[in-house]
Amino acid sequence: ETKFGLYEPSGGSAPDIAGQNKANPIATILSAAMMLRYSFGMAEEADAIENAVNKVLDKGLRTADNMSEGCTCLGCTAMGDAILAEI
User: Fold this and answer.
1) 63 with 76: CB under 8 angstroms?
2) Long-range residue pairs from 65-71, CB within 8 A, at least 24 positions apart, any chain
3) Which DSSP symbol is given to 17?
4) Is the whole-model pTM more than 0.85?
5) Phi/psi-derived region of residue 68, left when phi > 0, alpha when psi is between -120 and 50, beta in every other case
6) In terms of DSSP bridges, do strands 72-73 and 61-62 run parallel, antiparallel, or are they unpaired?
7) Of the candidates 52, 36, 40, which has an alpha carbon nearest to the alpha carbon of residue 84?
8) Residues 47, 28, 52: CA angle, nearest 5 degrees
9) Which end of the chain is more exposed for a tag (fewer CB within 10 A), N or C?
10) Could you report the per-residue pLDDT of 18-50, keeping only the tens digit for each?
11) CA dihedral in degrees (36, 38, 54, 8; nearest 10)?
């Protein structure tokens, strides 16, 4: 009763790339971490998710929307899998 929230990644539904495995899942994943932390008091679990995202980014893994020189471009599914593997 004392904790509630609305956790939503900004950016919209991206209908122009729907079904093309191009979307960046990181904002959605981090929104879930925020929900765990602020609504459910699950700081350890939220930390695990946030740390996994940071590890993947530190390894140079990116989706097309945030590619940088020397990084590896992944699709949405592969990025999600890479983050999951770090948890």
Assistant:
1) yes
2) 65/22, 65/24, 66/24
3) G
4) yes
5) beta
6) parallel
7) 52
8) 35
9) N
10) 899 999 999 999 999 999 999 999 999 999 999
11) 80
